[in-house]
Amino acid sequence: MNRNFIAGEWLEGAAVRRNINPSDTRDLVGEYAHADVAQTEAAIAAAHAAFPAWARGSVQARADALDRIGSELLARKAELGDLLAREEGKTLPEAIGEVARAGQIFRFFAGEVVRGGGEHLPSVRPGVEVDITREPVGVVGIITPWNFPIAIPAWKIAPALAYGNCVVFKPADLVPGSAWALSEIISRAGLPPGVFNLVMGPGSRVGQTLIDHRHVNALTFTGSVDTGRRVLAGTSARFAKVQLEMGGKNPLVVLDDADLKTAVECAVQGAFFSTGQRCTASSRLIVQKGILPAFVDGVTERLRALKVGDARAAGTDIGPVVDADQLAQDLQYIDVGGSEGARLVVGGAQPKRDAPGFYLEPALFVDASPEMRIAREEIFGPVACVIAVDDVDGAIRVANDTEFGLSAGICTTSLRHATRFKREAEVGMVMVNVPTAGVDYHVPFGGRKGSSYGSREQGRYAAEFFTTVKTAYTAA
């Protein structure tokens, strides 16, 4: 049984979680220990005790530890990618790529440790000088989702440690294997006891304890909007620092002047790969009427050629949905789309496979309107709808007509239209002739409206959340 890691020791939990392969539900990936409230509080206490020495310790030691973690992830990307694909259901190439990205993130922040900067300014008062520095915030609680079970933990844990914070990490209860494997690597990287802690288990116990505990100085969360609201309410009540990454209902605009092949590929990659289980997935395809018939035909043909199957099998394009509950939700939305008047042109069925798994053919609806539920609510599965528009003005209006604001894309050969869209799209990230899903690790990630709250993640902008600014005055 894979245990929790608290104060430098691997400890048995209060209960056990069975981790099942969504490609073959007969396959038990492993059993993982659940922490209870007392163990979570012990992890917080260990982090709180370790913080002063870690925050003021050697920056070279920090950099070396992060580099060791990143290098081992990259060296073991095939092995760990296989584990990720087995427990989460994304295809093996996608899973290996995710592990590689996690390794690159740790190595990036290994460099950031020794690139830390500040400002030295003259005061407006003669004989006084001013130093502006960044300091770690303290104990950081990290709560991550199931859809990127190693990359999202990496892009939170790496900067937290790089900037001198101590960590209590709660991964998604649904897919603990990759998070445990990452934590096992971190446990051997030379960090002092208590600097990094892993507490697996349900949000009702482990997550809520992190939200409420007075010694958790900052909490970074990626997950659903409803849970994000609860996290915000709890952390705000005690004035803790909070960062939330939540849902998306991302538009991909396709204008009449778009390159058809590019537009089709952006739509299929963005909406359906990773089984559509990405907060950046383009589930609203907003298409100008002149290119609409050819675009729908192209996407339909492309989807029919995709192979749905075991995530680790050679040639699989689309793996299973992550579990039975998510599959039921996806199927419910497919029923809702039809009842609202949208027309299903391809997919939406559960293909038969030799092994029992949570398989779903990618579904494409046409004749959708912006007020339909399938065009407004995040489905988080391989389901997308096409909304027809007359012109660029209508496309931008529909694209912005959502409570979310994470990512938005446009396919066009017009520099004028692309420039306008980049300026007017009410999102945190804009993509021109590339899929809405797929971002780099060294630049900011985040959105607006109901998608994000707080400062950006990733790249040098991560310092905004994981540090606090101090201004010091010195008389010469």
Automatic annotation (TrEMBL):
* Keyword Oxidoreductase recorded: yes
Q: Which InterPro entries match?
A: Ald_DH/histidinol_DH, Ald_DH_C, Ald_DH_CS_CYS, Ald_DH_CS_GLU, Ald_DH_N, Aldehyde_DH_dom
UniProt lists the family membership as follows: Belongs to the aldehyde dehydrogenase family.
Give the signal peptide as a residue range, or say none if absent.
Answer: none
Protein name (record): Aldehyde dehydrogenase family protein
Keywords of the record, alphabetical order, are: Oxidoreductase
- Which part of the chain is the Aldehyde dehydrogenase domain? 17-471
Sorted alphabetically, which PANTHER family does this protein's record hold?
ALDEHYDE DEHYDROGENASE-RELATED
Q: Where is the active site?
A: 245
